[in-house]
Amino acid sequence: MRPPGDGDEQAAALVAALTGRGETVAAAESLTAGLVCATLARVPGASAVLRGGFVVYATELKAALAGVDAGLLAEHGAVHPEVAAQLAEGARDRCGATWGLGLTGVAGPSPQDGVEPGTVHVGLAGPGTRTPRLSGARVAEPPTRGEASFVTVRTLALTGDRDLIRTESVRAAFALLGEHLA
Question: 70, CA 20 to 30 Å: which among 28, 44, 88, 177?
């Protein structure tokens, strides 16, 4: 049995909203290691909206699978807001989804490359251009889709054990997507 409040209600609401809009989602996940996609997939009907995703736990896979700039990773490491943005764009582009989510961070208990546990960056890439509502929003041109992509990143400072940090990261990703579907 799963603990209450583990994101299932948010996931069900997202699946319903995406279905109603005829839109899809994909994710490139580092610290959550597939938990975003697994949580969405628990919802009946998720196959209509969940295109797929990447577990890019190893730094080099962020570049190889999700298209994150290797120079960015070399200069700033894997836990950086721009990495989350590029993960979101890569998931959207490479899975052919309407929306892309990208998550990177440190679940702990130890720091990673000088970044404290609980530091999480959640990226969202979506269609069209919007007036940026969130800190870190930008407009980018994906290389193959040929349409403008709205990209935003939310940075979190979470506390708790590894499981709680990962679960809260999923909730934050769902909340961010939900705000843009409202």
Answer: 177
pLDDT digits (tens, 9 = 90+) for 81-114: 999 999 999 999 999 999 999 999 999 999 999 9
My answer on whether omega of the bond before 44 falls inside 30° of 0, hence cis, is no
Residue matched to tokens 């995703």: 53
**Using an 8 Å Cβ cutoff, are 17 and 43 in contact?**
no
Task: Count the helices and strands in the chain (H runs, E runs).
Answer: 6, 6
Evaluate whether 174 touches 152 at the Cβ level (below 8 Å): no
Best CA proximity match to 107, nearest among 8, 30, 11: 30
| Rounded-to-integer distance, Cα 50 and Cα 23, Å | 9
Please count the residues of the chain: 182
- pTM across the whole model: 0.89
Nearest Cα to Cα of residue 181 among 16, 8, 9:
16
Nearest to 19 by CA among 43, 52, 53, 55: 43
State how far the alpha carbon of 44 is from the alpha carbons of 88, 102, 129, in Å.
24, 23, 31
